[in-house]
């Protein structure tokens, strides 16, 4: 799920036929279980359909079905990220063909909420599970006061770094962004590698870093569905774009698109001293071949540098949830599945031990086994205890917009212009404000 953060979820319509692996039998959540990827053994119970792409979803669904005596889940993987969203958009337009429960990345929830495609699940057992997740996690799956998803995994951010490079140039992990620039300059002056990377294709990182500086890109309340606050060019947003643009201009950081073979090759070969990323990064990097062979044991992680160490702000990159769709005939049963999937100890443990998810369920997040884990990728460092769990617990959540993909695309365009040197960071923020506000008005919003 992590590598799909950079995918564009276009909403082009395609033929609705063949998209749903479990067909409804009209029993309010019942299905033809013969078309499920998983095998349902409790055939006397009602069944809800589900789309999800977690790598260990087969185990997760089997665990839920084995333990549950009220409902069973018929699961299908119809594609990852944008592929699934395209199919869901088709079902929304057709008014049929959607599953009862669907995996949705948190930043996409408002897009489907504004189309009335997903259900507020607060009245379907929220109070019983509310304490299982942090306030920030719930905010990320909420629109206004309504809750549209059950949080599963997240991406509290930190600074991954090469211990060998830091040791060679006498660098200690910078605690502030000014210290980060000073360290980068020291390494460059000594003939060392670039200190990090400004990738235009990871706009969610820039958004998170701007939020850390006090930005609030969007203000949206479904009680006023045609009004939205758009604030792309506040001083904090400009400061962060100017900061990273300045690092790139001085040659202190690279400008390679991330999640590419070229970027990974650079990581493996020590081209970058740091990687500003999220808690899911060790799993992604391991899968990409980083931290193996000659790279083994060379990586460590430190807390994300701050602008004000007296008032630290933790931010997040990525995260997914289970939502109940409007087409579910028995939303209370679908909600029971959404709340219960990936919530049992066996599934959660399998998820974090195999680096599939960074769990948001507090049963796992605060368990001694998870907190005290010696992470192999980091040479046995207790990364969860030192960095990721404190960051997750301190994260306050954020407000996403109903047109987040357009915003990310527009941000990518402006970061590219900063990288080319055609605009300053402040100018890019002004252009982004004009672009996104114009788009919002074209979509019928009153921009505040």
UniProtKB/TrEMBL annotation:
Residues 1-21 form the signal peptide. Pfam families: SBP_bac_1. InterPro entries: Bact_solute-bd_prot1, SBP. Gene3D superfamilies: Periplasmic binding protein-like II. Keywords: Signal. It comes from the Bacteria. PANTHER family: ARABINOSE-BINDING PROTEIN-RELATED, BLR3389 PROTEIN. This is Extracellular solute-binding protein.
